[in-house]
Structures are given as structure tokens and as C-alpha cells.
Design a protein that fits this description.
The chain is mainly alpha-helical and 75 residues long. The chain has one domain. It is 41% helix and 5% strand. The protein is built from three helices and two strands; from the N terminus they run ββααα. Strands 1-2 form a two-stranded antiparallel ribbon. Helix 2 runs antiparallel to helix 3.
Length: 75
């Protein structure tokens, strides 16, 4: 039985599954989800997520988690 995501050696090292419920698409570690589901999120939340992922301050992780939960709860 083959994995629909492909062989392990072809997956991104820092990748994870899309956070959209039921989606198994592997995405880059900085992204919330796959392209299809990313554009279902309102622009304001996408902008906030991108701002958190680019910020280099010590509160980045806490901000990212808060925005991640807001997006996930809205889906």
C-alpha cells in the first residue's frame, strides 16, 4: 500500500500536513495549509499569519499559535 503523499525522500524535510480538517497534503513548515485551503481563509487572517511567520521577535511563537488557533477554529 503506497502513501498518497509519495515516498519519504520526496517530502519536504520541514513539512507537515495541511491543517485543514481531513487534508493530507504536505506543505512547507511555514505555511498553514495547502494552496487550495489557504485561499479559503479570509485575507485579514492570512495577512496576520504571514506577519507572524516573518517576525523574528521572541513572541513570534505565541503569536503564531494564537493566529493558528483562530484560523483552525474558524474552519
Amino acid at each position: 500500500m503506497s502513501d498518497p503523499r509519495g515516498p519519504l525522500w520526496r517530502r519536504p524535510f520541514d513539512g507537515h500536513d495541511c491543517n485543514y480538517p481531513g487534508c493530507k497534503e504536505v506543505v512547507n513548515g511555514q505555511l498553514w495549509g495547502c494552496k487550495e485551503h489557504w485561499y479559503l481563509i479570509p485575507v485579514e487572517l492570512r495577512d496576520r499569519w504571514m506577519a507572524c511567520s516573518r517576525t523574528r521577535d521572541r513572541d513570534r511563537v505565541a503569536k503564531s499559535i494564537a493566529v493558528h488557533l483562530e484560523i483552525t477554529n474558524g474552519v
